[in-house]
Amino acid sequence: QVQLVESGGGSVQSGGSLRLSCVVSGYTSSNYCMGWFRQAPGKERVGVALIDSDGSTKYANSVKRRFTISQDNAKNTLYLQMNNLKPEDTAMYYCAAADGCTVVAATFDPGANGFGYWGQGTQVTVSS
Length: 128
Prior knowledge:
- This protein is mainly β.
- It has strands at about 5, 10-15, 20-25, 30-40, 45-50, 55-60, 65-70, 75-80, 90-100, 115-120, 120-125.
């Protein structure tokens, strides 16, 4: 069984930083994408950042130069470092995993790329 558990969310003021973590268990794919997605109340879930098993990354335009996705395979953990947070970043953040995926071919559609494994989400709230 595959489990993803997010943590690290919280409330910060505009310009602040947070580091989200996603601990992954039961996942053994050697060709994968991991991603961070977010969903605000009344809005659709959208992609934020992707990383694959080769370490390639892709970011949504809205978070480029502010967010950094990374992974620590030894700790089975995915990270999202979020700097210079803005109120529009307020959302529930989810991590997800996809088999048979490469970043170069992936999109930010949460329903695409085979993202079949999802965490429970962690809330990020940014006040102005």
